[in-house]
Amino acid sequence: MMRFSTLIRHPADWMTGVQTEHSAVITSRIRLARNLRGHSFPGWARKAERVKTLEILRPAVEELPAMKDAFSRELGDLSSVQKQVLVERHLISREHAARTDGSGAVIERRQSFSFMLNEEDHLRMQSIRPGLKLTEAYEALSELDTELEGKLEYAFDPNLGYLTTCPTNLGTGLRASSMLHLPALVLSDQIGQVLQAVNKIGLAVRGLYGEGTESLGNLYQISNQSTLGESEETIISRLERVIAQVATHEQNAREKLMEEDPEMVADKIGRAYGVLRHAFIIDSKEALNHLSLLRLGGNLGFFPAETVNLCDTLLMDIQQAHLQLHAGTKLSPEHRDSIRAEIVRSRLQSLNSPDNFNQKNDQTDRFPEDGNTENA
User: Which of 71-85, 208-222, 275-289 has the lowest mean pLDDT?
Assistant: First the structure.
């Protein structure tokens, strides 16, 4: 089985800014909730029952061919920092990290699949892909789900579908979501009306770490809310269509800002670059907001395209638990802010000021006809 240090040393493609068709869509995630027939659901189960269920679930998941040489641990064997690192990488939930006895995690080597055992439900499996690839993520996870259903007896009702702890997951047990980077909609004050329109058609909008979290770095999660009465394909198709529309609104907002107020855009990106390149103390919120603008600069041609990759890696590496793991010791908030600034300065050392790059690129270069700004 894979060691924790090996897992963390090799980030997945979806964490590192792989170029995709829609530059605003960072990742797509599919999560399926399942429970075992004849076993108390985790919230009602005593410790002994949870341990027994884990002994059934863990080997079944580890034996899947796709999970060969996976990272597999009981949560009680992980430190609080290690669990928080997995939360920051979106591999387990905050709620799951709070659990210990009778709970576990199995994570595929490339971190494209992860399984939470005895979270809110007995089994919560997820598939993550870069860009707008919800259908691809679902098809890959559905194969694993079918393999598991051949080994395990799921709690299933012919009328209600898969039975889950929370009624909002009843039916398909499906939660599909995409993480979007929407700085131009924020800068142009259009974000409110766009997100309101998304909410009106029954989709949920959440922050960086899901339900109950705020948007940081202009990052938003859009997901389905209903799981009952529709097929998985119908839910995913509608969500993909809406997310593509939001990404198009973001692209249009970027073009309009560059046409109508290019100096304001250049100023915002230049100031973010200046702070990140020269700050010696920076807190998480400020760093994320500035990295968001630097990422936008990479999309618009102020910086080389690989700057997007650099920003996405930094977005992960400057999180609180990642910093503590990097330092190898518990850090005070002040010390964290100093190390965060040091890491950012070091990674951006070879990134030149946006001035020269901006002068070399005219408006046409920044916005190719196909609308894809990744390689601009």
Answer: 208-222
* Residues of each annotated binding site for ATP: 27-31, 90, 124, 175-179, 206-211
Full residue range of the structural domain in which residue 163 is found: 4-254
- Exposed, middle or buried: residue 347 (CB in 10 Å: 0-12, 13-18, 19+)? middle
Identify the residue whose tokens are 């894979």. Answer: 2
Host H or E run for residue 200: helix 191-200
pLDDT at 369 exceeding the cut of 50: no
Point out the domain boundary residue: 228, 254, 280: 254
Q: Are residues 136 and 201 in the same domain?
A: yes
Could you list the residues known to form a binding site, using ranges.
27-31, 90, 124, 175-179, 206-211
Confidence class for position 207, pLDDT limits 50, 70, 90: confident
Q: Which two tokens stand for residue 205?
A: 């909008």
Length of the chain, please? 376
What's the total number of domains in the chain? 2
For residue 354, which of 253, 268, 280, 252 has the smallest C-alpha distance? Answer: 268
Token pair 């390149």 is found at 277
What pLDDT, on the 0 to 100 scale, is given for residue 363? 46
CA neighbours within 13 Å on the CB side: how many for 375?
7
Torsion sign over Cα 181, 186, 190, 192: positive
Query: Are 35 and 41 within 8 A, CB to CB?
Result: yes
Question: Cα 23 to chain center, whole Å?
Answer: 15
Question: Per-residue pLDDT tens for 11-24?
Answer: 776 766 555 566 89
Q: What is the DSSP letter of 92?
A: S
Spatial contact of 344 and 272, defined as CB atoms under 8 Å apart: no
pTM above 0.90, yes or no: no
Contact 154, 37 (CB under 8 A): yes
Residue 373 resides in a domain: no
Phi, psi of 199, deg, nearest 5: -65, -35
**Following DSSP, what letter does each residue of 16-70 receive, concatenated?**
TT---SSTTEEEEEEEEEE-BTTS--TTT--HHHHHHHHHHHHHHHHTSGGGTT-
**DSSP letter for each residue of 105-173:** EEE-TTSSEEEEESSSSSEEEEEEEESS-HHHHHHHHHHHHHHHHTTS-B-EETTTEE--SSGGGTBT-
